[in-house]
Amino acid sequence: MATLKICWRLRERNESNRIRNAGKPRSPKVICLSRLAKIFGQRVAVDDLTLHVRAGEIFGLLGHNGAGKSTAIGMMLGQVWPTQGEVHVCGHDVTRRRSLALQRVGAIFETPAFYDYLSGWRNLEILSHYSAPTPAERIREVMEWVGLAGREQSKVKTYSHGMRARLALAQALLPQPELLILDEPGDGLDPEGIHEMRQTIRRLHGELGLTIFLSSHLLNEVEQLCTRIAVMNQGRKVFEGSLAEVKQPKNWVRLRVNDFHQAVKSLREENLIVDERDGQFVALASEAGTDVVVRRLVEQGMAVYEIARHEQTLEDFYLGLMRNDSDR
Amino acid sequence: MFYLQLRNELWKLFAKKRTYIGFLMFLLAQNVIILLFRFTNGPRVSMIRTLEGNGYLAQQFISALTVATFMLLPIAYLLLPLYVSLVGGDLVAKEAEDGTLRMILSRPVSRLRLLLLKWLAGAFFSLALVLALGLFGVVFASFWFPWKGLFVFIPGELFSVFDAAGGLQHYVVAHLMMATKAVTVMGLAFMFSCFNVKPAAATILALSFVFVNFIMQNIPYFHDLQHWFLTYHLNIWQFMFAQPIPWWKIGESLSILLGFNLTFLVIGLTVFQVRDIKS
Lengths: 328, 279
Prior knowledge:
The structure holds two protein chains of two kinds. Chain A is 39% helix and 27% strand. Chain A is of the alpha/beta class. Among the domains of chain A are: 105-157 and 166-176, no CATH class; 250-311, Alpha-Beta Plaits (2-Layer Sandwich), CATH 3.30.70. Chain A is elongated, with a radius of gyration of 24 Å. In chain B, strands 1-2 form a two-stranded antiparallel ribbon. In chain B, helix 4 (64-98) runs antiparallel to helix 6 (111-144). The mean pLDDT of chain B is 91.
């Protein structure tokens, strides 16, 4: 019954959002970071980070451990003071008007911490009252939505890892957020838990129409969920764009010949390729086709064993970015 | 809203088992002292000798109130600071250590409001602990000793005798004054708790501050400077047993304690406000 009520309310909200946004060229920016920097002592944790996330997006912030993702999230939530730059969330400056900015924001961290000696219900009550008085009915609805109905009065110390993750989601959903910030949501979960988490994020986006900002070092997770991503390395943003851009940035083909380096040299001289990597991939120039490449190589007496289109995975892209960045 | 948030802070505090260590230890310590006083001769004989040496009929003053007050001194000097600083040191640092502080601060609550709520919860605990100390003492002592006059003797400080009714009044007022001591020590530990330290470190820093003050205050060389030490003002409650009560001295100490409390709170707030909260 409660689930039905939520869905009905959500549909209503989505509909009103759709009507409100009709005719507008682009959705509003929900997160706006401009020239953001954070220095801890001598260490630059975040360096000149500019980022925009629009309403309705699932935005992924990628980077290895220590790249500055959590510090960036800390600054978005007003937990870490920026050394320089501005952070706007839901249209409000977080450093100056934090309470307003976070009014409709929910957050989940990599290891959700709770008062283990209290019940799940009491935990939700305590945390939600920091936002606004929350009726018991609302807590019940959310508990049901995340699948914890029946266990609300059990102490959190008796919860499994997955149940704690669901409780974390419940506390984030209580203030009826427009924006959900997830810091490494898949960390520490088993494959089943990761799958469940992924499904939940899709539901939150689809059913509740939430804007979701998630940070992760798990490429697969980001690849399956996000519409747009940014990549951070050593505190700096090294890429921002859509997943489509990531997957087809260049016209990559796999080329197997008897002498790859000689083939690359020859194709470059003819301006038929623009890049090469890993001793087997070449990026074709925009006007070049595989037939032209094969003809040229055969004319030069090279044996071509294989030529095939190659769609770049996020992993290829990410590793390439990291390589290029460390070469710089 | 403020009431709800304060209620939640109290929930968090009083649902933890370690919060009750102080209450439990008071119960144990007081009952052990009462039984020793009842079934051994040493302390009783010494008290009788002091009373009769000063021309009083000792049996009129070996009472529940006298024994409860006799126990108060060591407990208030040693155990009370320990348990209030244990809780005060936990209030912020434990939440930071456990990660729940990060969960709270992802909510639209200001750091100032959060700290005030926590400080109030700590002050409530301190009051409850002092109340329990006074109540346990007098209730358990009355199981073994009659309800008669009150005799208080602190060597070099005071020698007072009261009838039962007057004694009870002084006993109650002394506990009200002792609450200021408990709140101040809790506030000191709370201030350290706002720094980026472990809860145990905050507790140890607060206790070190109190005990170093106490040691210095009691070195004869510093006797003339004792008004400069925090512990002198913390222990002003014992003057509530003086005849007459030195109200001017009490007022002076209360003002100084108020100043200390405000300073601790402002330092704590400032440090917490500028701190980065990281996992």
